[in-house]
């Protein structure tokens, strides 16, 4: 798991979130997928930095890599 991402059953039903926020990795990925830039996300959510956004991407990439290893 990425050090900036946490699982807490009391926050967002246990979805992986950026530590210190209630912002889920899934939210960040959705924003990026819809075309928002890092800067736009930072403007809309000032508690996030580019480091947090990159952490969400790294977390998602790691999940994908582990999924492929198990499925193979």
Strand content: 5-15%
Query: In total, how many beta strands?
Result: 2
Determine the structural class based on helices, strands and strand pairing. Answer: mainly alpha
Instruction: Describe the largest sheet.
Output: 2 strands, antiparallel
Helix content: 40-55%
Distance between the termini: 21 Å
**Total of DSSP H or I helical runs spanning 4+ residues:** 3
Radius of gyration over alpha carbons? 12 Å
| Average pLDDT rating | 90
Please give the order of strands in the largest beta sheet.
1-2
3D shape: globular
What is the H/E order? EEHHH
Low-confidence runs:
none
Can you characterise this structure?
Helix content is 53%, strand content 6%. The model has no long low-confidence stretch (mean pLDDT 90). 17% of the residues are buried. The protein has a two-stranded antiparallel ribbon. It is mainly α. It is globular. The chain has helices at residues 25-33, 38-44, 50-71; strands spanning 5-6, 17-18.
Relevant terms:
72 residues; globular; 2 strands; mainly alpha
Quick description:
This protein is mainly α. The protein is built from three helices and two strands.
Topology (SSEs and partners):
Elements (H helix, E strand, L loop, with lengths): L4 E2 L10 E2 L6 H9 L4 H7 L5 H22 L1
Helix pairs in contact: 1-3
């Amino acid at each position: 798991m990425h050090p900036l991402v946490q699982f807490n059953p009391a926050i967002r039903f246990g979805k992986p979130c950026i530590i210190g926020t209630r912002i889920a990795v899934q939210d960040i990925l959705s924003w990026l997928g819809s075309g928002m830039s890092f800067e736009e996300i930072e403007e809309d959510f000032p508690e996030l930095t580019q480091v947090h956004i990159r952490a969400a991407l790294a977390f998602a990439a790691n999940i994908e890599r582990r999924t492929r290893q198990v499925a193979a």
